[in-house]
Amino acid sequence: MPTVLVVDDEAHIREVVSLYLTAAGYTVITAADGAECLEAFAAQPPDLVILDLMLPLADGAEVCGRIRAHSDVPVIMLTARASELDKVALLEAGADDYVVKPFGPAELVARVRAILRRAPGSGRQDQATDEDLHLGALRISPATWEVTVDGEVVPLTAREFDLLLVMARRPGVVFSRRQLLEASTGFDEFFQERGVDVHIRHLREKLGDEAGEPRFIETVRGVGYRVRKAEG
Question: Distance of alpha carbon 224 from its chain centroid, rounded?
Answer without folding.
Answer: 20
